[in-house]
Amino acid sequence: MTIEIYQSKASWIEGDTEELEYTCSYGCDSKSDCGTDGYVGSKFCQNDDVYQNYISYGCNNFQCVNEQNAQLIENCLHGCSNGACIEVDCSTGDEKCVGTEYFTCSANKWVSQGNLVGKCGMSCTEKEIIFQNDDYYICIGGTYKAVLDVLELTADEQAEVLELINQLNVTVQEKARIIEELSATLDSQIFIINNLNVNIQEKAQIISNLQLELDEQIALINQLNNNIAEKAIIINNLNLNIIEQARIIESLTQESNEQLIIIQNLNITIQQQAQLINELTTNLNQKSELISQLQVENEEQAELIRLMNLSFSEQAYIIQQLNKEISDDAVIINNLQLEAIEQAQLINELNLNIQQKSELISQLELTITEYAQLIDSLSAKVSEDAIIINSLNLSNQEMAQLILDMNMTLTEDAELIANLELSLEQEQALVNELYETIEEQQRLLEELENAKAQLKKEKILRNVLLISGISIVLILLTILIILGVKKKKRK
Which of 88, 386, 450, 475 could potentially form a cystine with 108 if both were Cys, beta carbons 3.0 to 4.6 Å apart? Predict the structure, then answer.
């Protein structure tokens, strides 16, 4: 409060008046002396609602006092920002129609979806099919129904769906996606794929783009309306390893001729063919049949046999089952990449007589030393070794080198030379090539004479036995004839 103090003027001054001397202030008498209550400052956000500070005045002991507090201005449903409630048009999941236009709520704002069939009174044509929001719908009874599985539809509705897919101008990847969307089961996918108007290459690409496990791929391919050669094209496009390919082929057929068709249509190497045949069967007959029917050259057949990790007896069995000429067998053995000793083991497993063996060996591509190793490893009779050596058409020098490489004794050398049936001139030339000293040559000639004499005796003995055998047969026949005549006379 303010107080004014006055003082009177002197009496001699006319009019005797008072003048303001000074003023002074002190506190207050009431609240009104201090100020008016009210909101101060700007609105602000607190606890996601709108608040503003409120000041209240008072008079206490003749002194003005005030108190300032934040007061709630507005409760916000969707939060507060910059001193104001956040305004939203809608909440997630809300939808509305404005006439026939359909709206959905996105980020608290209404978003038009246009004139969506099945919404806001939009009608549909019976069996009409549309694609909206990543789903297919078919009009049934005036209402669109989502197609979750094509097999749940009637035959007419299925036909409509298939016609739509066939008319779509989309990539094979997109068609695969459509098939997955329209199929709840593998059977549904098979049904659609079997009814697509696509060529085998496109069908193969569609199947390869489906997210299928191996067992599902096997089941699908088995139920396709395609021949075995077309199924091979599909298998080829699935990017499978050899073991997986073998599993599918085994499930499709156990017939060698059909398995052969598939193998021939697969884009695989000789090495992969060998691995595939091994995976398909452990039966040597079936392996032989598949190899023999593959349209490959002798060299490729040899590569197949070599890569199949077979024993010599198994390799020999397959070679025999191929039923080829001796010259073909020689080509195969030449390409098996065997050592001479291994070739001997293989040849021993073949069911060949000595003439066939000699013909086969003569066509092998070996050095003189390798021929010596092979012949020595055959463990044949000396006479048979001689037949093989004769078939090689060697010069005296080559023949001498071969005999030396066989590491035989002088007596064994003589026995072999005696069985070669050379002329005296050829024998002498061969002896000269074999031994350098006169003494060794003389000893060899002596052993050679002994060996020839022994051969002569054996030949005479064989002839005697042959004649004796013939004589015995003739005597037995004569006895039987006589007995037969006597029986007739008794009758």
Answer: 88
The helix/strand/coil state of 417 is helix
Work out how many domains the chain is built from and give that number: 1
Whether the Cβ atoms of residue 189 and residue 180 lie closer than 8 Å to each other: yes
Residue 194's alpha-carbon distances to 122, 204, 222, 402, 456, in angstroms, are: 35, 12, 12, 69, 81
Question: What is the structure's pLDDT at 463?
Answer: 60
For tokens 């007739």, name the residue. Answer: 488
pLDDT tens track for 36-82: 888 988 999 999 999 999 999 888 888 888 889 999 989 998 889 89
| C-beta of residue 172 within 8 angstroms of C-beta of residue 159 | no
Q: Residue length, the chain?
A: 491
pLDDT at position 169, please?
A: 80
**What residues are paired with 132 via a beta bridge?**
135
Does residue 74 lie in a domain region? Answer: yes
- Give the C-alpha separation, 253 to 363, whole Å: 40
For residue 348, the Cα-to-chain-centroid distance in whole angstroms is: 41
Residue 114 lies in a domain: no
Helix, strand, coil share of the chain (percent; to 5): 55, 15, 30
pTM, two decimals, is 0.60
Which range of residues forms the domain containing residue 54? 2-83
In a domain? residue 395:
no
Closest CA to 201 of 163, 167, 172: 172
pLDDT, residue 12, reads 41
pLDDT in the model for residue 11: 47
| DSSP-H helix ranges across 237-325 | 242-252, 256-265, 270-280, 284-293, 298-307, 312-322
CA 288/CA 271 separation, integer angstroms: 16
What are the residues whose beta carbons fall under 8 Å from the beta carbon of 103, sequence distance 6 or more? 95, 96, 97, 110, 111, 112, 113
Give the strand order in the sheet containing 101-106.
Answer: 95-98, 101-106, 109-114
Dig out the tokens for 403 from the structure.
Answer: 């005999």
Buried b (16+ CB within 10 A) or exposed e, 380-417: bebebbbbbbbbbebebeebbbbbbbbebeeebbbbbb
What is the per-residue pLDDT for 325? 93
- List, in order, residues 6 or more apart from 90 with CB less than 8 Å away: 96, 105, 108, 109, 110
**3-state SS assignment for residue 352:** coil
User: Is residue 295 in some structural domain?
Assistant: no
